[in-house]
Amino acid sequence: MARPRLLAPSRILRTTPRQVGGGREREWLVQKSKASIAKGSKSFSAASALFGRATRERVWLLYAWCRQCDDITDGQDHGGVLQEQANVEQRVKGIRVLTHRALDGQPTADLAFDAFGQVAMEARIDRQLADDVIDGFALDAKGWRPRTEADMMRYCYHVAGAVGVMMALVMGVSPDDHETLDRACDLGFAFQLNNIARDIYEDDAAGRCYLPVEWLVEEDIPPGQHMKPAYREKLVKLVKRLVDMAESHEAAARYGARALTLRQRWAVLSAANIYGAIGREVRKRGAEAWNSRVHTSAAAKARFVSKGFYQALRRAPEPEKWPRWTRSEVLVAVRMAGPIAPIPMTPLREEDDI
Questions:
Q1: Which helix (H) or strand (E) holds 328?
Q2: Mean model confidence pLDDT for the chain
Q3: End-to-end Cα, the chain, rounded Å
């Protein structure tokens, strides 16, 4: 059979040259990313200002990608009300394609993905870690919900723990420093557990629930009925359990911050103060926690940042009790839930070569 003829001789065809940041100027990507974080998250914007310039710029670049992935998935513009969720699985596939292109040094025509390609090269963020984050969006796209506490922690890893690891790499932590990366993941776990506690009402309105089914069953709360007034006191009990878990991971993260520079510790501990306060306020309000959305005022943020500075001057003590869930344990569940790895195609050596 004749071989198909190429449209052009193979000697003429050339691969697209690798262009970090999609060929865009780094300074331009940084400025656009700075505008994105200022619009999308005042808390993260305030915390990022505490970093040195190099780290601060990388934080902006990373945030731009995270924000864009979230907005594409939910049909939003820097957060807000969830929009039409049709074709969301296709949108997540698009996110993965653009992310892989950015990591391969190819232009994406989207500044947020080009920004990610830039920061990934600088901070040594690999494809597996990027896919771990995207897998969280894929779970939401499928309408997934956790059945067990382990499932909930797996989700927390995808949407926050893996981002915490990325942040540590952005701050210059070595990919081989697993102890510090574990503590960065703990901070992500703490943030997300507090978010789940705060956003129960909004998630329910959007048809989502991140409380494990097993937890609801333990309290005799029928699935999908947890926001009904009849179950409010039982829900308060579950949320206390959630925030207690968050505090455990927060304590581990504070201990791990000792490995960072003073400015980095200041930023991390300030963010921990802000997000920790959200969870603790939800727990304090009890049954009235979802009558209005819990938020942190500008004045309170300033106090937490100031407090974070003094905390950064001292090394946090080792937690009396470490969190139940570790990054390595959750990663086992993550990999087990993922696709089966392909069979290696490396040819076997000849017997004479052994």
A1: helix 327-337
A2: 88
A3: 39
Q: Are 323 and 186 in contact (CB under 8 A)?
A: yes
Asked whether the beta carbons of 61 and 119 are under 8 A apart, the reply is yes
335 pLDDT above the threshold of 60: yes
The helix, strand and coil proportions of the chain, stated in percent and rounded to the nearest 5, come to 65, 0, 35
| Residue 22 DSSP one-character state | G
Report the distance separating Cα 125 and Cα 109, nearest Å: 21
Instruction: Tell me what the mean pLDDT of segment 313-335 comes to.
Output: 93
CB 65 within 8 A of CB 115: yes
Q: How far apart (Å, rounded) are the C-alpha atoms in residues 65 and 72?
A: 10
103: left (phi over 0), alpha (psi -120 to 50) or beta: alpha
Residue 109 · residue 147 · CB < 8 Å: no
Question: What DSSP assignment string belongs to 252-268?
Answer: HHHHHGGGS-HHHHHHH
**Rounded-to-integer distance, Cα 186 and Cα 326, Å:** 8
Distances in whole angstroms, Cα of residue 261 to Cα of each of 152, 189, 314: 32, 22, 12
Burial 147-184 (b: 16+ CB within 10 A, else e): eebbbbbbbbbbbbbbbbbbbbbbbbbeeeeeebbbbb
Topology adopted by domain 145-316+326-332: Farnesyl Diphosphate Synthase (1.10.600)
For the chain, the domains span: 21-144, 145-316+326-332
Q: Distance (Å, rounded) from C-alpha 231 to C-alpha 78?
A: 33
**DSSP 8-state secondary structure symbol assigned to residue 160:** I
**15: nearest Cα among 103, 104, 97:** 104
pTM of the model: 0.88
